Amino acid sequence: MTKYERFVANVKLRRWVVLLSLVIVLWLVRSVMSTILLTFIFSFLVTRLIRLIRRRVHLPAMVVVVPLYLLIIAGMAYAVIHYVPAVVAQTIHLVNSVSDFYNSKAFANNKAMQWVVQAANQMNLNEQIKTSVTALLQYAGSLTAMGVTLVLSLILSFFFSIEIDELMRFGRNFTNSTFGWYFQDVTYFAKKFIDSFGVVIEAQLFIALVNTAITTVTLIFLKMPNIPSLAVMVLLLSLIPVAGALISVVPLAIIAYTVSGWQGVLTIIIMIIVIHLLETYVLNPKFMSSRTKLPVFFTFVVLMAGDWLFGTWGLIVGIPIFTFILDLLGVKKLPDTKKTPPAKAAPTK
């Protein structure tokens, strides 16, 4: 046997080389990692839905995917039409209220407020405010980029899901090619990662429901308007680990100010802090642990390490990657992973 034939026949060594090549490829495309991960998540959820429906009724993928994405587009359009003008109007009202109070006689005659103004001038807060405004504009730009990434991921996942059957048939051509062993190993790793990723998605859906329930109760207490619509918005944002709760504080605080003033804003901020702590230190470790069958300590450490290494995305992919590595090392087998027979060596000429 040649060195190449011996390498192909050595399944363990070959798979580690393939895994290393995948890591290198992902590192090279790290600048578009958000698009890749969002496309993967959307495609994963939609294909799961397609398989769930096909267990009872065999339907073409188009029949399931097209109505689903039309519903998603309609929901996004409804949010833009109804929420954006309301948030803008309430933001203008908030700015005008602060401006009127600043120019009022009550402010001018209030010794405490004048002392605060003098202290602010002594601390040279003008430069700090300019820096904060610049950071805010940069953040707004990142939100715009995130919106573009979201739309692009939805488009890519739509075409992937609608052509799932054709893509599966096309993918078999790679596994039967001259270098079929490489693509067979890629498929082997992909199945393992998808199995571990599924439990994380289920956990995040449960956490999103808990966050939405707590937020909805608080909104009812504050007598906020359009509670069903706000609950849907919170549910969608809660699907974003940790960051979703922080993003939702902006529109909720603005609306709360128009209803209850600064007391409502303070209540919303306290609620978001409680939800953030509950999600980070209770729900994520405990529920992730019950779904992945990992000790709570390991789950908690992996979530912190994932957040430190990859930011918010680390909270999504940290547990699947850790479970995936444990499975590869033979420390802990994934319960849903089907045993894949060793790939046969491709014939060489």
Q: Could you walk me through the main structural features you see in this protein, from its secondary elements to its overall organization?
A:
The chain has a domain of 153 residues. The chain is elongated and about 95 Å long. The C terminus is likely disordered. It is 83% helix and 0% strand. It is mainly α. The longest helix is centred in the first third of the chain and has 42 residues. One of its GO terms (cellular component) is membrane. It is a multi-pass membrane protein.
Using brief descriptors, characterize the structure shown:
transmembrane helix, transmembrane, Permease, AI-2E-like
Topology record:
Blueprint: H1 3-9, H2 11-28, H3 33-54, H4 61-102, H5 105-108, H6 111-122, H7 125-162, H8 164-175, H9 180-221, H10 227-238, H11 243-260, H12 262-292, H13 296-310, H14 312-329
Helix pairs in contact: 2-9, 3-7, 4-7, 4-11, 9-10, 9-12, 9-14, 10-11, 11-12, 12-13, 13-14
